[in-house]
């Protein structure tokens, strides 16, 4: 599959088959993704790949803590609630997803169930926890590098028939993730990528988010035309 097709067709997958993902497949994906751009070739990233009982423990404990009303405890600084145009885009995709799943606006149990799915990393069979070297904080450059690696992972996975969703909800309690996966304290937990084979019968998997017109966010400077 060519790169343009990969970018145009890739979408977040929120429903996965129970089919396991082999270690060899994940290694192949990472082998491709690690060629992502890196500032000064610093390669500040680490990938912790969870499956089986360790992943089950992370999602169970993460979900239980959040249900009980525990505060999020993430390593990275949060922007807080979205406002303005960013909030509008967040609401738009939520409406699409709820519409596809037949979840009514006043159906609180089903809406809560959707939130819990996020805390469970959408029951994906594999989770790739992405971290970077703490010594590089503060600064956004290593965050940029990790984002490039993350996008490389999801594109390489899609090219191999695997779907993924970049899922901050799944690591809302980063302390739990660190404990279960034995992630060293000198690494900052950035996000995770829930990954597996897409369940085509899951309605939300057909949803694609809208993108703004180029004219809304692109400026061309110095072009003759």
TrEMBL record:
Residues 8-197 form the Nitroreductase domain. The keyword Oxidoreductase applies. The keyword Oxidoreductase applies. Belongs to the nitroreductase family. SUPFAM superfamilies: FMN-dependent nitroreductase-like. Pfam families: Nitroreductase. Gene3D superfamilies: NADH Oxidase. Keywords: Oxidoreductase. This is Nitroreductase. InterPro entries: Nitroreductase, Nitroreductase-like.
């Amino acid at each position: 599959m060519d790169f343009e097709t990969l970018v145009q067709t890739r979408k977040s997958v929120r429903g996965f088959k129970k089919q396991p993902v082999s270690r060899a497949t994940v290694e192949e994906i990472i082998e491709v993704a690690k060629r992502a751009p890196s500032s000064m070739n610093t390669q500040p990233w680490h990938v912790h790949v969870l499956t089986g009982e360790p992943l089950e423990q992370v999602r169970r404990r993460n979900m239980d803590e959040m249900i009980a009303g525990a505060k999020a405890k993430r390593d990275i600084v949060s922007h807080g609630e979205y406002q303005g145009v960013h909030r509008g885009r967040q609401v738009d995709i939520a409406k699409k997803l709820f519409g596809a799943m037949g979840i009514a606006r006043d159906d609180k149990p089903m809406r809560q169930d959707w939130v819990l799915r996020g805390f469970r990393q959408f029951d994906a069979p594999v989770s790739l926890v992405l971290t970077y070297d703490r010594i590089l904080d503060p600064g956004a450059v290593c965050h940029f590098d990790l984002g490039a690696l993350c996008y490389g992972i999801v594109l390489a996975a899609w090219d191999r028939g695997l779907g993924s969703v970049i899922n901050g909800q799944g690591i809302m309690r980063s302390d739990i993730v660190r404990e279960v996966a034995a992630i060293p304290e000198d690494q900052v937990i950035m996000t995770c990528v829930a990954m597996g084979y897409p369940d085509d019968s899951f309605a939300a998997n057909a949803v694609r988010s809208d993108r703004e017109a180029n004219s809304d966010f692109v400026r061309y400077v110095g072009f003759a035309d």
